[in-house]
Specification:
Layout (H helix, E strand, L loop, with lengths): L10 H10 L26 H5 L4 H7 L4 H4 L8 E2 L4 E3 L10 E3 L13 H14 L3 H14 L6 H18 L2 H15 L2 H14 L4 H14 L5 E7 L7 H9 L7 E8 L4 H21 L3 E7 L18 E7 L7 H13 L4 E7 L8 H22 L5 H19 L12 H10 L2 E3 L4 H11 L6 E6 L2 E6 L2 E11 L2
Parallel strand pairs: 4-5, 4-7, 5-6, 7-8
Antiparallel strand pairs: 1-2, 2-3, 8-12, 9-12, 10-11, 11-12
Helix pairs in contact: 1-9, 1-11, 1-12, 3-8, 5-6, 5-7, 5-14, 6-7, 7-14, 7-15, 8-15, 9-15, 10-11, 10-17, 11-12, 14-15
Length: 484
C-alpha cells in the first residue's frame, strides 16, 4: 500500500512550502514578526502608545466598545488597587456593591484562570439580566484585558468584544465590519506565512490533513483517474503530500483532478485561489503527476450545485470537507450530505471542531464556546511568541467566530458547530457508513504528533479519531463511504 509519507514526515513541510513558493524554498518563509506595545492592563497603558500600533481591525473593534459612554465616571469607579476590589458608589449600592478580584483568581500575583472565571460570571449576569453585576464585570474585563497581553488578557479581550455585541444587539454589524477590515488588508503572502507557520508550530490543522489524506489514498488505491472535490479553507496546503504519495506509487502514476470549492466571492479570495492554482500546477509538474485544477465559487454550501463540478463517470471521486460543514446552516446540513451520497463518491472525509453549539440556551452556548477557545488560545500560547504576527491573525480569526457564535444568532452566517456524535448520526442518516482508519494511517498521525510539543495526543472510536490537547478533544477526523 502506498504510504502517506514515503520519504519522511518532514517532506510535509517541504512540499507545502514548495507548493507556495518553489523558487524561494531555501530562503525560508517564517518572517514578518513585529514589535507590539508592552503587556500591561489597559489602566496602566499609555493610550497614545497603543494607538500607534492599531490597524483597521483594531479600530473596528474599538468602535463597538464605547465603555466611556456606557460606564461614565458617575456610574462606576475605578478599582481599589489596595484592596483588589471594584467599588460602586453609595448612591447605587446593592448586593453587588463590592466585587473582590480574589474570588475570580485575579488578585495581584495570582496565576489563576481569572479570565474564564470573570467571563463565565459575566455571561451568567447577562443571562439572568442582572444589570448592575453585568456592568461591573464588563468594566473589570475592560480594565484588565488587552489583545496584546498574555493568554488571560487576550482571552478576556476578545470575549469581551463578543459579549458587548450581544448585549447591544450589534453582533451582525460588528461581524461584517471585522470581515471587511480583514478584506482590506488581506494578502496572499501574509496568509501563506500564517498557515505554514501555524502548521509548523501546531497540529491543529495538519492532524486532519494527514488523517484525510491517508483515508483518500487507501480508498482510491489502484484507480487511474482521480477527482477530489475539496471543501476547505486551508489554501490547498493539504495536497502537496498527497501529490508526493501519488508520484511514488508502485504502479503507473494516476491523473488527479482537484476541484476547490470556495465560499467567498470577494475579489481577494478569487485572486488568491488563482495564484494557488498556478503554484499547485507547478508543483504537480515537479512531482510528475498529471494534474488538473479548477475553482468553483459557492456563497452558500447548502445550495451546492452538482453541475458546477462536472462529475465524470470514469473518475474515482473523493469529497474532502475540512472545517467546511460548520459553515452550512443547520437546515441545509442533511441536504448537502444527501447530495454527497447522490454523487456516489468512493470516500467522504469530514474534519470538524469537537464543539457543541446547538443549544438555544445562551449560557450553555457561551460555556462551550469558552471551553473550546480557551483550549485554542492556550495551545497558541505554547506554540507562538506573544509578539507573533501569525498568532495575532489566528486570534483575530477566533475573535470573529466568537462574535458570530455569541452575538449573531439570528443571522444567516451564524456558526452552529456540532460534535462527532452529531455529525456521525447525520452521515448515517444520509446513507454513509464509517470507513475505519487503517493502522498505517493511525501510525502516520502518531508520527506527526511527535513533531510537536508535549500535550498533543490522539484517541479514537468506530466513527473516527480525535486530536486532543492536554486530554481535551478539540478536532475530530473521520472517513465515510456510501452504503452498498
Amino acid at each position: 500500500m502506498d504510504r502517506l509519507f514515503t520519504s519522511s514526515i518532514t517532506n510535509y513541510y517541504k512540499a507545502s512550502e514548495q507548493c507556495f513558493n518553489p523558487s524561494k524554498y531555501s530562503e525560508g518563509c517564517y518572517t514578518d514578526l513585529f514589535n507590539l506595545p508592552p503587556t500591561y492592563p489597559k489602566s496602566h497603558t499609555n493610550s497614545k502608545q497603543c494607538n500607534s500600533f492599531m490597524d483597521d481591525e483594531d479600530l473596528s473593534f474599538k468602535q463597538f466598545l464605547p465603555f466611556k459612554e456606557m460606564f461614565n465616571s458617575n456610574q462606576v469607579e475605578r478599582p481599589n488597587t489596595t484592596t483588589n476590589q471594584f467599588m460602586r458608589p453609595s448612591s447605587s449600592r446593592s448586593e453587588f456593591s463590592e466585587l473582590n478580584l480574589s474570588e475570580f483568581g485575579a488578585e495581584s500575583g495570582s496565576n489563576g484562570r481569572w479570565a474564564s472565571n470573570l467571563l463565565m460570571e459575566c455571561a451568567r449576569a447577562i443571562a439572568q439580566k442582572e444589570t448592575g453585576r453585568m456592568q461591573h464585570l464588563l468594566w473589570m474585563l475592560n480594565e484588565m484585558s488587552s489583545p496584546y497581553g498574555d493568554y488571560e488578557q487576550k482571552l478576556a479581550s476578545y470575549f469581551l468584544q463578543a459579549l458587548f455585541c450581544k448585549i447591544t444587539d450589534t453582533g451582525s454589524r460588528c461581524y461584517r465590519t471585522l470581515c471587511s477590515a480583514v478584506e482590506k488588508t488581506y494578502s496572499f503572502d501574509s496568509a501563506r506565512k500564517m498557515i505554514l507557520k501555524y502548521q509548523e508550530s501546531s497540529p491543529w490543522t495538519t492532524f486532519g490533513h494527514v488523517a484525510a489524506n491517508g483515508a483518500i489514498l487507501e480508498a482510491l488505491e489502484g484507480e487511474m483517474k482521480l477527482h477530489i472535490i475539496d471543501m476547505s479553507n486551508t489554501f490547498c496546503t493539504q495536497w502537496p503530500t498527497l501529490l508526493e504519495a501519488l508520484a511514488t506509487r508502485s504502479d503507473e502514476t494516476p491523473h488527479l483532478r482537484l476541484t476547490s470549492v470556495v465560499t467567498s466571492k470577494e475579489a481577494a479570495a478569487i485572486k488568491v485561489m488563482k495564484e494557488i492554482g498556478h503554484r499547485m500546477e507547478k508543483f504537480a509538474r515537479l512531482m510528475g503527476v498529471p494534474f488538473e485544477f479548477s475553482v468553483v465559487h459557492h456563497h452558500h454550501l447548502q445550495r451546492f450545485d452538482l453541475e458546477t463540478v462536472r462529475i465524470r463517470p470514469d473518475e474515482a471521486l473523493a469529497i474532502n470537507c475540512i472545517h467546511s460543514l460548520q459553515r452550512v446552516s443547520n437546515p441545509g446540513r442533511d441536504s448537502i450530505l444527501s447530495t454527497f451520497q447522490c454523487m456516489n463518491p468512493k470516500i467522504v472525509t469530514v474534519v470538524e471542531d469537537e464543539m457543541d453549539l446547538t443549544s438555544d440556551d445562551f449560557l450553555d452556548c457561551f460555556s462551550e464556546c469558552l471551553r473550546f477557545f480557551s483550549l485554542f488560545f492556550e495551545s497558541l500560547e505554547e506554540s507562538f511568541s506573544r509578539t507573533s504576527n501569525e498568532r495575532l491573525m489566528l486570534e483575530r480569526t477566533s475573535a470573529r467566530s466568537m462574535v458570530n457564535i455569541l452575538a449573531c444568532e439570528d443571522s444567516d452566517v451564524c456558526e452552529r458547530r456540532e460534535k462527532a456524535v452529531q455529525w456521525a448520526s447525520r452521515l448515517r442518516d444520509a446513507g454513509f457508513v464509517p470507513a475505519t482508519f487503517s493502522d498505517d494511517v493511525v501510525d502516520d498521525v502518531r508520527a506527526l504528533l511527535k513533531r510537536y510539543k508535549e500535550g498533543w495526543a490522539h484517541c479514537g472510536n468506530s466513527d473516527g479519531i480525535f486530536l486532543t490537547w492536554k486530554e481535551q478533544c478539540v478536532i475530530w477526523a473521520s472517513a465515510w463511504k456510501p452504503c452498498l
